[in-house]
Amino acid sequence: MKLAAIYRHPVKSLGEERIAATVLEPNRHVAWDRVWAIAHGASNFDPADPKWHHCREFVRQTHAPTLARLSITFDDATRQLTLAHPERGEITLDPDAPEGASALADWIAPLAEQGRPGPYSVCRIPDGAFTDAEERWITLASVRSRAVLEQRAGRPLEDIRFRINLWIDGMAPWEELELVGKDIVIGATRMRVMEPVERCRATEAGPQTGTHDTPVLSLLREATGAINFGIYAEVTEGGPIAEGDTVLIE
């Protein structure tokens, strides 16, 4: 088994970035993954008391499928985000700077309002991330499980639908769902599988169409009897990982 791809998602639900390598730390998220999120007008997120909140408090692809068409890159050195969308063009900014946060909120508004009304604001929590699980877990998924879904769908299912951190190739289809309680070793790192990832309609949003174009949840139920795809894992031993690294199950 091999590590096929590594992804991070600097802003929750606003695109994904493939990276060749990273360093995992114990009990931490992937670096720069979901560091920021966009709160909508009905959000209960309190910037005076910043802490993890459920994904319903933020703008997300589930309700605004056009967000699936977004691309994003993050410059680790300058801390600059670059976002692009066919309807909004391209913008580069520092989301931690007041002017950058304001520019991002204004830029995303015409896309976000399709699902949740504004006003919109950029959120960040100290030493945390806006992952769907409150725990400091990362996500893994199987390339071959996705291939089964693609056969049922009759079309490719792009990575961005699932927002996975680590894609693994070489597992039997759905084998990953049976690994709860076991360890996965990638390079010098080790992680404990915690539980499956329950999916939502974000998986049904197509990056080409910007609409809910594929019944992924129904396809999952047909294939597995549930709407789980991918697994959560807690990093217990950190270290560098890179695409192509050998993956072991223990």
Describe this structure in words.
- This protein is an alpha+beta fold and 250 residues long.
- It folds into two domains: 2-28 and 133-249, PK beta-barrel domain-like (M1 Pyruvate Kinase, Domain 3, Beta Barrel), CATH 2.40.33; 36-124, no CATH class.
- It has helices at 98-112, 143-153, 216-224, and strands spanning 2-8, 17-19, 21-24, 36-39, 71-75, 80-85, 89-93, 121-124, 138-142, 166-169, 183-186, 189-198, 228-237, 239-242, 247-249.
- An eight-stranded mixed beta sheet has the order 2-1-10-9-13-12-11-15. Strands 5-6-7 form a three-stranded antiparallel beta sheet, with helices on one face. Strands 3-14 form a two-stranded antiparallel sheet.
- α2 crosses α3 (216-224).
- The longest helix has 15 residues, at 98-112.
In the CATH hierarchy, the third-tier topology of the largest domain is known as M1 Pyruvate Kinase, Domain 3
Shape: globular
Mean pLDDT: 96
Which runs of at least 5 residues are low in confidence (pLDDT < 50)? none
User: What percent of residues are in strands?
Assistant: 25-35%
The CATH superfamily of the largest domain is known as PK beta-barrel domain-like
How many separate structural domains? 2
Distance linking N and C termini: 13 Å
User: How many runs of DSSP E, i.e. beta strands?
Assistant: 15
Please tell me how large the radius of gyration is: 17 Å
**Main CATH class of the largest domain:** Mainly Beta
The number of distinct helices, counting runs of at least 4 residues, comes to 3
Major sheet characteristics: 8 strands, mixed
Topology order in helix (H) and strand (E) letters: EEEEEEEHEEHEEEHEEE
**What structural class should be given to the helix and strand makeup?**
alpha+beta
Helix content: 10-25%
Give, in spatial order, the strands making up the sheet with the most strands. Answer: 2-1-10-9-13-12-11-15
CATH-scheme architecture of the largest domain: Beta Barrel
